[in-house]
UniProtKB/TrEMBL annotation:
Keyword entries, A-Z: Activator, DNA-binding, Transcription, Transcription regulation
Gene3D superfamilies (alphabetical): Periplasmic binding protein-like II, Winged helix-like DNA-binding domain superfamily/Winged helix DNA-binding domain
Organism: Spirosoma montaniterrae
InterPro entries: LysR_HTH_N, LysR_subst-bd, WH-like_DNA-bd_sf, WH_DNA-bd_sf
Protein name, entry field: Transcriptional regulator
C-alpha cells in the first residue's frame, strides 16, 4: 500500500463522495477509484460499502481508516521536523473558532499574526464546538479556539485564559436595579438565549437552570447564533442575557450601563486552543498561542 492510497480512502471517508474526494486529492475520479480498489484487493477486505449513499466505511474499514489517519499524520510530521529545525515557519494554518469568540477575540491578534508570520497562509472558519472537534479528527482544520474542558478522547487542550461572565439587562428589567447579581437572581423571566449547538448557551443554562424556557414573559420566541442580536433585542424589547467579558469591551456608554457583574465567586469560561493529540504544525500553533496571549486586554485573566 502507498501513502497516496491512504490519502484517497481518508478523503472518501471525509467527504463521503468519490468525486468530491478526487477533487480534494487533485486526481481524476477513475484514478482515485482504481487505487482504492487496488488497496482493497491487496488487503482482501472492503473499506467502503458502495451500496449506500452517501458511501460509508465497513466495520473493518472504520478501523483501517483510523489507522490510516495516524499513519498520514506521522508521515506529514517528518517535513515539519525539518522545517522546525530551520526555524522556518511557513505553510497553511487552518483555524476553527466558535462564534461567541470570533468577533471579540480575533481583532486583537490576527492582524499582527499575519504580519509577523507572512509566509503563513491563515484560513479561519467560524464553527460551533462540535464541528471543530469533528474537523480536527478528520484533518480539515489544524487548531480550534473553543471553550473547555471538552473531555474528548484524542483531543489535546492548551488553555489560554479565563473569561468572566456578566449580565446584560434591559433598563426595564428587575436585574437592571441590582448592583451585583447572584445565580439566585437569575431565576426570573426574560432570558434570551443563543440557539442550540452553542456551548455558551449550555453554560448560561447551567447558571440559570437547565429547564428554563427562554423569554417566558413574552409571546415572542427567538433564538440566534449571534450575541450582538441578543443585545439589540434586549435594547429594544426587554429581558436579559449573559455575556462573556470580551463581548462588552467595545460597548458604548449606554450599553455599558446595562451590564451587571456577578458577586464573588464570579462565573468564568476557560478558553483554549484544541488540537488532535498527534497534532501537526506545532511551532505554528505555539506561535499562535504566544500571539494571542501577547494581545489580550489586561483585564483578562491568563
Amino acid at each position: 500500500m502507498t501513502l497516496s492510497q491512504l490519502d484517497y480512502i481518508v478523503a472518501v471517508d471525509t467527504y463521503r463522495h468519490f468525486a468530491t474526494a478526487a477533487e480534494a486529492c487533485h486526481v481524476t475520479q477513475p484514478t482515485l477509484s482504481m487505487q482504492i480498489q487496488k488497496l482493497e484487493d491487496e488487503l482482501g477486505v472492503l473499506v467502503f460499502d458502495r451500496s449506500k449513499q452517501p458511501v460509508v466505511p465497513t466495520e473493518t474499514g472504520q478501523a483501517i481508516l483510523t489507522q490510516a489517519r495516524e499513519v498520514l499524520r506521522s508521515a506529514r510530521r517528518i517535513p515539519e521536523i525539518v522545517s522546525e529545525s530551520k526555524n522556518d515557519l511557513q505553510g497553511d494554518l487552518r483555524i476553527g473558532i466558535i462564534p461567541t469568540l470570533a468577533p471579540y477575540l480575533l481583532p486583537y491578534f490576527i492582524g499582527d499574526f499575519v504580519v509577523n508570520y507572512s509566509a503563513v497562509s491563515v484560513q479561519i472558519q467560524e464553527l460551533v464546538t462540535e464541528q471543530i472537534v469533528e474537523r480536527l479528527r478528520n484533518g480539515l482544520i489544524d487548531v480550534g479556539l473553543v471553550v473547555t474542558p471538552l473531555s474528548e478522547n484524542g483531543i489535546t487542550e492548551l488553555p489560554l485564559f479565563r473569561e468572566k461572565l456578566v449580565v446584560y439587562a434591559a433598563d426595564s428589567h428587575p436585574l437592571f436595579g441590582k448592583t451585583v447579581v447572584t445565580p439566585a437572581d437569575l431565576q426570573t423571566d426574560g432570558l434570551w438565549l443563543l440557539t442550540e449547538g452553542h456551548c455558551f448557551r449550555n453554560q448560561v443554562l447551567d447558571l440559570c437552570g437547565a429547564d428554563r424556557q427562554p423569554n417566558s414573559n413574552t409571546p415572542l420566541r427567538y433564538e440566534t447564533g449571534s450575541l450582538e442580536t441578543l443585545i439589540k433585542l434586549i435594547d429594544r424589547q426587554n429581558g436579559f442575557t449573559l455575556l462573556p467579558f470580551l463581548a462588552t469591551l467595545d460597548m458604548d456608554k449606554t450599553r455599558r450601563a446595562r451590564l451587571r457583574p456577578f458577586a464573588t465567586p464570579q462565573p468564568v469560561r476557560e478558553v483554549s486552543l484544541v488540537m488532535h493529540r498527534s497534532f501537526l504544525k506545532r511551532q505554528l500553533i505555539y506561535a499562535l498561542k504566544s500571539e494571542i496571549l501577547a494581545h489580550l486586554p489586561n483585564e483578562v485573566e491568563r
